[in-house]
Structures are given as structure tokens and as C-alpha cells.
Design brief:
6 helices, 5-stranded mixed β-barrel, OB fold (Dihydrolipoamide Acetyltransferase, E2P), 22% strand, de novo design (two linked rop proteins), alpha+beta, 241 residues, 2 domains
Length: 241
């Protein structure tokens, strides 16, 4: 079956001297992996630069449902980036979020609202001229709403402790260890109310920001089976002093 779809690059692995294994989240089929041959000619259409983290592409391929790796027939950029590949801060964010998405959407089938959210978020980051230091945190929180384990915001009026297992605020200390103290719970409540447009109003130090990411990653590890430690987080921790 011939498929034409928009797709977001999540992970690229070098395979031999002239091939790549590329994992995409596609608009029409969800997660799909490809074996991509990169010709040596500088005039070739398939270039390594196309398959950088969070690149948004148009793909054309003959979909074989039983094949683990598909083969591309054609590819071209769907959303040309203006700033993201050239900003060290945005590039580090994109690497982190691509790794996060790669793990969180491993078994994701077609989910057009999720695809649209990712695409619109990446476009916002690319165009942002400033005030985006909290972008990855807001993205991580909002992503949970599309993956089915979003925190219960309404419960924030009824409790001082955030139960990471239940995904809600409670008025008592849970009997297990997966909960946030009052200070972290209050910060979580504030994060749940942020948008990309308002997040710059929430002032945090680098230490506070990293603590927020650690807490949210812990939440993901509880709710996404097999969710690992993210290697790119160490790079992100050094940004936005």
C-alpha cells in the first residue's frame, strides 16, 4: 500500500557506512521505522541532515505491514526550520524531547491529535525568539494528556501531596514512596497550569528547573512500562543557568 504522510524524526542509528535506521512518528500510521540508504553523491536527495531529531518531513513509501523496516521512496522537508538547528539551547532541547518521545511512544498507533501537538510544539520552539527556558517542562506535562496518564488538575484544590502513582493530589502522605512533598507538589500544580505563552512568567533557577524535569521523568517511569533513564538529560542539565 502506497502511503504519503507527514512524519517526525525521533531517532537515527547509523547502520554500516551508508545506511541509517530511522524511527519516525507518522501522522497516518503512528510509529514506523525505516532503513534509509544514504548515497555518497552530494546531489542525492537522501541526505543525513534530513534525519536530525524532530525534523518534520513528508514521506512517501510502499508500506509493508509485516516488515520491521520500511523503505523510503521519497522524502522532503515539510517544515523548514528557521532557528532550531542553529541554536545550541534549542538543539539540546530537541535531542532530549526526541529521546523522550522515542521511549514514550514506542507502541503508539495512529494518534492524529498527538502528532498535531508535537508538530505545533516543535514549530513554536523553532520560531521562539526568547522566553523558552521552560519549554521542555511544559511539553512533557502536556504530552501526558495525549498519552493517557495526565495528572488530575482538579484534585489540586483538595490536597497538599501529589501522588505520582495515582496522578492526583491527596490530603495525606501516601503509604508508598512515590509522592511529592508539599513544596514539589505546589510547584507541580503551578506547572500544570502553564502554556507556552505563559511559561516565562514562572521564574525558576536552573536547579529548580532540573528538579522539575527529574520529577516529571519519575512520573513517566511509573506510567510508561520500561521507560529508561534518558541519556540526553545530562546535556540539558547544564543549560539556562
Amino acid at each position: 500500500m502506497e502511503v504519503k504522510t507527514r512524519a517526525i524524526v525521533l531517532q537515527t542509528i547509523k547502520y554500516g557506512d551508508a545506511q541509517l535506521i530511522v524511527d519516525f512518528f507518522t501522522e497516518k500510521l503512528g510509529r514506523v521505522s525505516f532503513m534509509v540508504k544514504i548515497p555518497k553523491s552530494s546531489k542525492a536527495k537522501m541526505k543525513r541532515q534530513l534525519f536530525q531529531p524532530l525534523m518534520i518531513l513528508n514521506l512517501e513509501f510502499d508500506h509493508r505491514p509485516k516488515a520491521n523496516l520500511q523503505r523510503l521512496k521519497d522524502v522532503f522537508i515539510a517544515l523548514p526550520f528557521v532557528d532550531l538547528p542553529f541554536s545550541p539551547y534549542k538543539l539540546a532541547m530537541s535531542m532530549f524531547l526526541a529521546e523522550l518521545l522515542g521511549q514514550a511512544t514506542r507502541n503508539e498507533q495512529v494518534n492524529v491529535p498527538l502528532f498535531s501537538f508535537i508538530e505545533e510544539s516543535v514549530a513554536w520552539l523553532d520560531q521562539a525568539q526568547g522566553n523558552y527556558a521552560n519549554f521542555h517542562i511544559v511539553f512533557m506535562v502536556r504530552l501526558t494528556f495525549f498519552l493517557g496518564f495526565s495528572p488530575n488538575l482538579e484534585s489540586g484544590a483538595h490536597g497538599d501531596f501529589f501522588d505520582l502513582e495515582e496522578g492526583r493530589f491527596v490530603s495525606f502522605v501516601p503509604t508508598h514512596v512515590h509522592y511529592l512533598n508539599k513544596e514539589d507538589s505546589l510547584r507541580m500544580l503551578g506547572l500544570l497550569r502553564l502554556s507556552y505563552e505563559t511559561m516565562h512568567l514562572y521564574t525558576m533557577s536552573r536547579l529548580d528547573r532540573n528538579r522539575c524535569v527529574e520529577v516529571i521523568l519519575q512520573y513517566y517511569r511509573i506510567h510508561v512500562p520500561g521507560f529508561p533513564e534518558l541519556k540526553s538529560f545530562s546535556v540539558l542539565q547544564e543549560l539556562f543557568a
